[in-house]
Each structure stands twice: as structure tokens, then as C-alpha cells.
Design a protein that fits this description.
By secondary structure, this protein is α/β, with parallel strands linked by helices. It has helices at residues 2-23, 31-39, 43-49, 56-62, 86-97, 106-114, 122-131, 137-150, 155-169; strands at 26-29, 51-54, 72-73, 101-102, 119-120. It has a single domain, classed as Rossmann fold (3-Layer(aba) Sandwich).
């Protein structure tokens, strides 16, 4: 009985993610996710499917504007009047705009959860790309191999990502 409840919980969790993928068309992104997506060669694919936005501090931290040409930099002065750190600006902008956040930073993701915003890490964005048929399974695997070399995810995160991937690709 406990396993049935656990499996149902995981199923509903994955179903919730897929519903979020259905409506995902724009998001705010932080530096860590930009770095990962750039390193695994998926930043361009993501910007083709999602309207990505960020705050000026992220651009400064990332350090290169050429890869960010398709990412909108939000004028946070219109949203935030208090001088704060980049992470806080990102969270405040996402809350103000009611947009999901893409981040690898657990503190940012937990803050997004607390204020009721959707949130994704790079692995979930890879699943989004395969769900939306932007990349195929071979490209996903190449990116996954690169991400596993780069990311500091717990095994639990990779295992969950694998379950989401399996659910998405069951019908392909």
C-alpha cells in the first residue's frame, strides 16, 4: 500500500511538471542555469522555445553578452527600488511578473516555491525541450552526458529527471 501511494505521488508530481511544460513560454533565468545551458550547448535551443528574461546582475555575472542576445534584460528599476543582491532581484522580478524561475541555486528554487512560482533546473529544461520536440533523444543524451560532467546535482535529482524523461518518451 505504501509503495502504491509513493508511486501515485511520483506520478502526480510528473503529471504536474508536464502540465507546467504545456504552459511554459517564458521564464526568468539565473547565472548558474545560463552557464550550464551554455556549456551543454542548449542555450540557443532554449531561447528558440522560451522567452527568457533576466536581471542586469545576471548579465554582469555571466560576463558575455554575445550568448545573451536573445534574452531580455529587465529594467528592474521599474520593479525594485531597494538595492539588493542579484538573486533577490531575480526573485523579486519573477514574483512581480508572476513568471517561473530557471535556476540551479537551491535557495532561489525554495524561495520560488514559497511564493508560489514554478521553478526548473537545467535538467528539467532539457526535459521541457524533449517534451516540446525541440531536441531529439540523441541530442538529449549528449546534453545529459555533458550536464552530468558539469552539474553538482544529487543522485535523487538525476533519478527524478530520468523518470520525467521516461514518461515523456513513452509515447514517442
Amino acid at each position: 500500500m505504501d509503495n502504491q501511494i509513493k508511486n501515485k505521488s511520483k506520478f502526480s508530481s510528473i503529471s504536474k511538471v508536464l502540465i507546467q511544460f504545456d504552459v511554459l513560454d517564458q521564464a526568468l533565468i539565473d547565472t548558474s542555469s545560463l552557464i550550464y545551458l551554455n556549456k551543454i550547448k542548449l542555450l540557443s535551443a532554449v531561447t528558440q522555445k522560451l522567452h527568457l528574461m533576466t536581471v542586469p546582475g545576471v548579465v554582469k555575472e555571466f560576463g558575455s553578452l554575445s550568448e545573451l542576445k536573445h534574452i531580455e534584460v529587465i529594467n528592474i528599476k521599474e520593479i525594485i527600488s531597494v538595492k539588493q543582491d542579484t538573486d533577490r532581484h531575480l526573485i523579486d522580478a519573477a514574483e512581480y511578473l508572476q513568471l517561473p524561475i530557471i535556476s540551479e541555486d537551491k535557495k532561489i528554487l525554495m524561495q520560488a516555491k514559497r511564493i508560489g512560482l514554478s521553478f526548473f533546473n537545467t535538467l528539467m529544461i532539457m526535459n521541457f525541450l524533449i517534451y516540446k520536440k525541440v531536441i531529439n533523444q540523441a541530442a538529449y543524451q549528449v546534453s545529459l552526458d555533458l550536464l552530468q560532467d558539469q552539474a553538482y546535482y544529487d543522485k535523487v535529482i538525476f533519478d527524478y529527471g530520468k523518470k520525467v524523461f521516461k514518461r515523456i518518451t513513452e509515447n514517442i
